[in-house]
């Protein structure tokens, strides 16, 4: 973060708006629709290779991580 970041009005207002109304609870979440990778790994491998995927690439689970992408106004307001 540089010294000039605080001088950019759009970024400043956007940051305040995110803190005011942005909430993870506004993101849709459907735990009853959960699908485990283990149950589809074989089918996904065939599909991936059928689309031209390299045989050296393996399909594996990824660790959860946060994303810093911007949400739409509708997602923010909830």
Descriptive notes:
- This protein has three helices and no strands.
- It has 78 residues and is mostly helical.
- It has one domain.
- The mean pLDDT is 81.
Write a brief caption for the model:
This protein is mainly α. The chain has helices at residues 9-21, 37-50, 73-77.
- Biggest beta sheet attributes: none
Which structural class best describes the helix and strand composition?
mainly alpha
SSE order in H/E notation?
HHH
Number of helices: 3
Shape verdict: elongated
Cα gyration radius (Å): 20 Å
CA-to-CA gap between the ends?
A: 29 Å
- Proportion of residues in β-strands: under 5%
Whole-number count of domains:
1
Uncertain residue ranges: none
> What is the strand tally?
0
Helix content: 40-55%
Average pLDDT confidence is 81
Summarize the helices and strands and which ones pair or pack:
Layout: H1 9-21, H2 37-50, H3 73-77
Key traits:
elongated; mainly alpha; single chain; 41% helix; 78 residues
